[in-house]
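Write out the bound-state structure for dihydropyrimidine-2,4(1H,3H)-dione.
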Amino acid sequence: MQDFDLTIRNGTVVTAADTFPADVGVKDGQIAALAKGLAPGRRDIDATGKLVLPGGVDSHCHIEQLSSNGVMTADDFYTGTVSAAFGGTTTIIPFAAQHRGMKIGDVVADYAKRAKERAVIDYAFHLIVADPTEEALTQDLPAFIGKGITSFKVYMTYDRLKLEDRQILDVLLAAEKHGALVMVHAENHDMIRWLARRLLDRGHSEPKFHAVSHAPLAESEATHRVIQLARLLDVAVLVVHVSGIEAANAIRAAQAVGARIYAETCPQYLLLKASDISRPGMDGAKFCCSPPPRDEASQNALWAGLADGTFQVFSSDHAPYRFDQSGKLPKGDKTTFKDMANGVPGIELRMPLLFSEGVGKGRITLNDFVALTATNHARMYGLAPRKGTIAVESDADLAVWNPDKEVKIGAGMLHDNAGYTPYEGRTIKGWPEIVVSRGRVVVEGGKLQAERGSGEFIPCGAPGPIKQERKPSTEMRLFKALIS
Ligand code: DUC
Ligand code: ZN
Ligand code: ZN
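---
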């Protein structure tokens, strides 16, 4: 008989592919057995009536990160990972952010030190590439891919982050050559800048004009454009935080012709609307992120895209800024929509919101939920099969989920440091009651049981395809040989 450190018995185990009754036996931080009637562990958890899910992987969150305007997020690696854990997430992938002129080696070393000291769950890193010099492309990026940072985010907007199309092509080619995935923030910079200037010149400065300046066409144009850039080179690209129906349709159409386009969306685009940003006074700033939430037609298109596989990953894009002068309102009541820090908090509610609104309302299946919140992230970023699933030899990262528990959302019950939630007052059904990270119970009975600094850096491997990819044509191979 095997002896286990922990046995979770009588639950219903759910993976991206299966739902079945089984006990989960955990030994040395890994899943050691999956079967009915396992021997008792040193610690036994009765999961009768509960679902046993893979701990979530949140592959898009901003933690202890300086924005391009020099504003620090409200969450450091401690509060950010504690909040993630309470919401059922056991691995995060935030961004080591290069700003122009910074050496990538310095950026990563600083970020790794911060994470090591404070994280309570496991983490990997993406790199934001704002300065793709020859040295960065040929030396730094390949070196960090070798050290387990295999995904780079590039921006098509923001004054201090934006890359030109030819620079994006450089990064796409280098990423494919050395085995990395490029994530793209797709919004047309000049459209946004031009609209914002006109609005401000005419005295339209309230938060609601943020959504007017970040027009849906700014997103769909840039999405079309980056799709064509990726197709030119026949490389994979991930369009992150998709908000609008036109962008979603462009992605689906590109996938239908075999382009290697992946896509992500987030809770704010399913559950918030541009009309939330129109709330009186400065309150609308609590809903301002880029791209902004849209309308009901876009919400419906995104739900359809989650169900039909257009979107592979569902992330929080947690970007926590306090509703005061340190974050959202640097100039108090005089803050214009251009001065506000962009972003909304959501790392803790990402999984409960999708469970309640998606699985609970019949929009997606339970297995889709697991794929969208955990398994596909692990595959996409080269963390599978260690993370994102329930299988023998995978890390014992688990969420014991009560599908019937009703929770009324309020900022006071959350563990991040933003101090507000855009989902205040909503009631949702389904909540993770016990969360296990590498075999350690980290959350139980509403209490944290993990030590600061107990999370580990998990190097990412080569990004893996989520679905079968076709082979490049002979013409494409010859073309790539010419330009590489
Ligand atoms: N937009 C971003 O590009 N990043 C963080 C948050 C946001 O709203
Ligand atoms: Zn972005
Ligand atoms: Zn982001």
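---
The chain has a mean pLDDT of 96.
The chain is about 35% helix and 20% strand.
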